[in-house]
Specification:
Strand order of the largest sheet of chain A: 1-2
Shape of chain B: globular
Number of domains of chain A: 1
Order of helices and strands of chain B: HHHHHEHHHHEHHHHHHH
Structural class of chain A: mainly alpha
Largest sheet of chain A: 2 strands, antiparallel
CATH class of chain B: Mainly Alpha
Shape of chain A: globular
Distance between the termini of chain B: 41 Å
Order of helices and strands of chain A: HHHHEEHHHHHHH
Distance between the termini of chain A: 30 Å
Oligomer: heterodimer
Helix content of chain B: over 70%
Number of strands of chain A: 2
Number of helices of chain B: 16
CATH architecture of chain B: Orthogonal Bundle
Radius of gyration of chain A: 19 Å
Largest interface: A-B, 64 and 66 residues
């Protein structure tokens, strides 16, 4: 169930990649930034973790647009440079958080904090995870509808398929990319809110979330959005099973082992095509 | 005197100067110098794959962790000779490096895919280390300082460690120099600039990448061993977490990726600066020196993308010889990239 939020992180990576060929390695750190934003809002105003998304997500969108427009788009032709740049951003975000919040684990209480839903006799699930699951699929459905049935969605798909041809049709590629980047930031903000009730916060967790998001992203074939969501569920399930049923190193490593195992047999990902 | 003699003389002079610091530098600065040298060795090792070969590996933390933890664990818990442990760690690193090269080679989506998959490897390595008791678990391993004993890879004074680290840097530097001027170097650069074209002219991609990865993994593992032995305490969150390799990549990026002097300069300038900043600023505000470092890095990438070395070259030889990169750079602004096509993942193809 927690995997659906991972899928959402993967989806935000996938959106950016599909229109620009860029992957932002600081994605996880911006997610943690959002979570700490929610933490601040809670400790200052007592705002609930879920509600704070209406503040953190817009802030993140503005931040993302500034970063992409002034830092990343001018060098978007060079993948290696972009990767190095986003690694640098990761450094900045992580250490700014460390400066402000210190190195201790924090928690944001939520109205759903200790609620559980009991299904039958054996299944006990945290309510927050169920919320995360349904919100993820609702957002994913909206995204699919927008991409498939609106003019804007057609524009995005045109840029995805062939940016130069799209530009020749009179599409403003840069602008479309920026809109998609902000959509990706919004997804990230929502993912942060959904992860908030079930995860403790630490400034150095960003890289972990980046990895957790990139596994579904690669498994899903990098720009197949449904594939990414399913990949997220797979990784999340592997994580839960690993930590419940297996002991020690094997349990924690299970998602990664499955990920690498799949790549050995299907290097293009589960749903990718060569 | 021709150019290579001059640079050789400079190199010998630099080595002698650094070696002489053991006589007059205070202990505190000697410590910083040793760590700087070890980081130079790590950056040089990473540069073989990440710089010359253009394969941005984020999984090198696995090799550092192996080199640091395996010999320590073997000697502490099983009494195995440290030299044997170091050799075992280097061999294992080479094997893992080859495996990484093979897995990522099979689906060529270019540099990005390599970075993503190696990052997953790095994170996997961290998780395995912190949850394996034999390797010290989350609390790490403490290597007691023993009296100097060469057979047990144990040294007493900072001067001895400095000479050890210096020796490692010299070997890594010489190897890099050799690779750059060998056939392997030309192959790797061809792969970096355009993988498809490299394959088309008959370069065996898997072989070249694997050889580079194996060499790089061995050096990284050795540097990890030296680092752990000098540091005395092996903290898995530092030695085995991908963050350490991110730091090294950023140092290299500032200096100039893929050049001989880039990794040396980047680390030599910024690592001591960071340590001194940490000593003075970060007691008040923890993490501040990293933020400063990150901002400098982003500025360098945006303003002089080819790093110090590229910048100096361009000053010396005029704007158009500043490396093949600057040509891409200027064209890159006009290019609208075509994502999600395997062939076009390389900027060289799309910008023509």
């Amino acid at each position: 169930m927690v995997g659906s939020s991972y899928g959402l992180i993967g989806l935000s990576l996938g959106l950016v990649y599909s229109v620009s060929g860029i992957t932002n390695f600081s994605q996880g750190d911006f997610l943690v930034l959002c979570m700490f934003g929610a933490y601040s809002l809670f400790s200052l105003f007592g705002l609930d973790g879920y509600l704070s998304v209406f503040i953190t997500a817009p802030v993140l969108i503005v931040l993302t647009i500034l970063i992409y427009k002034y830092l990343i788009q001018p060098i978007s032709g060079q993948q290696l440079m972009v990767i190095q740049l986003t690694l640098g951003l990761m450094f900045i975000v992580q250490n700014v958080l460390l400066m402000i919040y210190g190195g201790n684990y924090q928690r944001v209480p939520s109205i759903l904090d200790t609620d559980v839903v009991v299904i039958g006799d054996i299944l006990v699930i945290q309510t927050s995870l169920i919320v995360a699951f349904f919100v993820t699929w609702a957002i994913a459905s909206i995204l699919f509808l927008v991409l498939n049935y609106t003019d804007f969605g057609r524009t995005v798909r045109a840029v995805h398929q062939n940016a130069r041809a799209a530009a020749l049709q009179g599409i403003n590629v840069r602008f479309t990319q920026l809109v998609v980047f902000s959509m990706s930031a919004a997804l990230l903000g929502i993912a942060a809110a959904l992860l908030l009730p079930s995860k403790p916060l630490h400034p150095a967790d960003g890289l972990h979330y980046t990895v957790v998001g990139l596994m579904p992203f690669v498994l899903g074939g990098m720009s197949n959005f449904l594939g990414i969501l399913i990949g997220g569920l797979l990784i999340g399930t592997a994580e839960s099973i690993g930590s419940f049923y297996l002991n020690g190193a094997m349990g924690f490593a299970l998602p990664y082992i499955i990920f690498i195992g799949i790549l050995v047999f299907r290097p293009q990902g589960l749903f990718g095509s060569r | 005197m021709d150019k290579s003699t001059v640079s050789r003389l400079i190199g010998v002079g630099a080595v002698a100067a650094i070696a002489s610091t053991t006589l007059w530098l205070p202990e505190y600065y000697l410590g910083i110098l040793i760590k700087t040298l070890i980081f130079i060795a790590l950056a040089l090792a990473w540069n073989i794959v990440g710089g010359i070969g253009g394969q941005l590996s984020l999984g090198h933390s696995v090799f550092i962790g192996l080199g640091a933890l395996l010999p320590a664990a073997l000697s502490l818990k099983m009494g195995v000779n440290v030299w044997l442990g170091i050799a075992a760690a280097a061999a294992l690193s080479a094997a893992i490096g080859a495996a990484m090269a093979w897995i990522t080679f099979r689906f060529r989506l270019g540099h990005l895919y390599f970075a993503l998959v190696t990052l997953a490897f790095g994170e996997l390595g961290r998780i395995i280390v912190i949850s394996t008791d034999f390797l010290g678990g989350a609390s790490g391993l403490l290597l007691p300082r023993e009296p100097a004993d060469f057979l047990n890879f144990s040294f007493e004074t900072s001067s001895q460690y400095l000479l050890l680290a210096l020796g490692l840097v010299v070997v890594a530097f010489a190897t890099t120099d050799w690779i750059i001027h060998s056939k392997l170097g030309y192959r790797l650069r061809a792969i970096r600039n355009n993988e498809d074209a490299a394959q088309a002219v008959g370069i065996n991609l898997l072989k070249s990448k694997s050889v580079a990865m194996i060499l790089s993994a061995i050096f990284t593992s050795l540097a990890g061993s030296v680092f752990a032995r000098y540091n005395g305490f092996v903290d898995p969150e530092f030695f085995a977490a991908p963050m350490i390799i991110v730091t090294i990549i950023l140092f290299t990026a500032i200096g100039g990726v893929g050049t001989l002097w880039g990794p040396v300069l980047g680390v030599a300038v910024f690592f001591p600066l960071g340590e001194i900043l940490r000593g003075s600023v970060s007691t008040a505000v923890p993490g501040l020196h990293f933020v400063i470092f990150g901002v400098v890095l982003v500025a360098v990438i945006r303003l002089i993308p080819s790093g110090f070395v590229g910048f100096v070259n361009r000053l010396r030889m005029g704007p158009h010889i500043g490396g093949a990169r600057s040509a891409f750079e200027r064209r890159g602004r006009l290019v609208v990239r075509e994502p999600s096509r395997g062939a076009s993942s390389n900027p060289g193809l799309t910008s023509t």
